[in-house]
Design brief:
It is a single chain. By secondary structure, the chain is α+β, with helices and mostly antiparallel strands. The chain has helices at residues 12-19, 23-32, 49-63, and strands at 38-41, 44-47. It has one domain (12-63). It is built from three helices and two strands; from the N terminus they run H-H-E-E-H. The chain has a two-stranded antiparallel ribbon.
Length: 64
């Protein structure tokens, strides 16, 4: 990820746009437990930008 992460919590669509995958992929990651840690605010799913950064860093580390 070359652009900085936003300072607000991310929606599933934000995450999909950020990493360049379809929205359904984000939901599949959630179901499989393979994506970044998310949380619910009422019925809305959100992701902490720091958790997303750490998740991406772990993927890059695994690939190295």
């Amino acid at each position: 990820m070359k652009r900085p992460l936003p300072s607000r919590y991310l929606t599933p669509m934000d995450l999909a746009d950020l990493v360049g995958v379809p929205l359904e992929t984000v939901y599949q990651w959630r179901r499989k437990g393979t994506g970044p840690r998310g949380f619910r605010v009422g019925r809305h799913l959100r992701f902490d930008p720091e958790d997303v950064r750490l998740w991406v860093a772990s993927l890059m580390e695994e690939a190295a």
